[in-house]
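Section 5: illustrative case.
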């Protein structure tokens, strides 16, 4: 499988059918093989029944609501693509980003590709309410200053991973809520994985499930705990270390007997 697209969804019965059908129609016109993995994150409505059936569409059902990254961990485990992309269930960004991400991962070997709404070619902020755009920028600034350094946008809902990277990285994650976006990039940065930022263009502006007034303090707390978790060895991974290894030094000469 060339490309897997993972969609975590919670109580999305009203829109998931249109999202998946439109995504499948777009992917069917591409030159690569693909699958869509829909993860029903313990929905209390008819989300699972609304997911279309058909070639390339798979449904993973969770018995309880675990949060965005709890669902993504299950979806990435179920996915089989050499490139595994996740995006929000309402598929808010232009779909042309998906083959571009696949090219960067499968064709050029990048380990991680992240949408960045702050890049010049992105179209995003002008389509949001002023308060929501300001809150998003403020949170991103705090996270960049305190946790992730040079990454300007951790929360963009479009990220792609090389298959072996996803298999090694997602099981390490400890945060199942919205701060999982920060955690996955923090660990990727700590292992010095190759990360490529790309612009995104918002095509839908659905009501966000994030409430910065209530969610932001917990998200920031989770982000600030990441360094301590790294220091305690919670993200230790021989697989990621091997993927990111850059052993360019010549081996030492063998020791000779005196």
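Designed sequence:
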């Amino acid at each position: 499988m060339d490309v897997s697209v993972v969609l975590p969804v919670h109580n999305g019965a009203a829109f998931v059918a249109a999202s998946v059908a439109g995504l499948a129609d777009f992917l069917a016109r591409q030159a690569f093989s693909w699958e869509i993995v829909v993860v029903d994150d313990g929905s209390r409505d008819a989300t699972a029944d609304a997911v279309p059936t058909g070639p390339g569409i798979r449904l993973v059902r969770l018995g309880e609501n675990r949060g965005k990254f709890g669902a993504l961990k299950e979806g990435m485990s179920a996915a089989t693509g050499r490139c595994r992309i996740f995006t929000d269930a309402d598929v808010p960004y232009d779909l042309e980003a998906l083959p571009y991400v696949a090219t960067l991962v499968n064709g050029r070997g990048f380990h991680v590709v992240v949408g960045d709404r702050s890049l010049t070619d992105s179209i995003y902020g002008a389509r949001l309410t002023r308060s929501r755009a300001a809150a998003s920028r403020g949170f991103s600034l705090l996270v960049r200053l305190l946790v992730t350094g040079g990454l300007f946008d951790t929360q963009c809902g479009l990220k792609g991973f090389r298959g072996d990277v996803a298999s090694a990285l997602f099981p390490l994650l400890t945060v199942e809520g919205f701060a999982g976006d920060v955690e996955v990039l923090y660990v990727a940065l700590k292992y010095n994985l190759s990360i490529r930022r790309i612009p995104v263009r918002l095509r839908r502006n659905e009501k966000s499930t994030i409430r910065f007034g209530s969610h932001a303090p917990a998200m920031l707390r989770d982000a600030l705990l990441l360094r301590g978790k790294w220091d305690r060895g919670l993200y230790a991974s021989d697989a990621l270390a091997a993927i990111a290894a850059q052993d360019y030094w010549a081996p030492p000469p063998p020791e000779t007997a005196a």
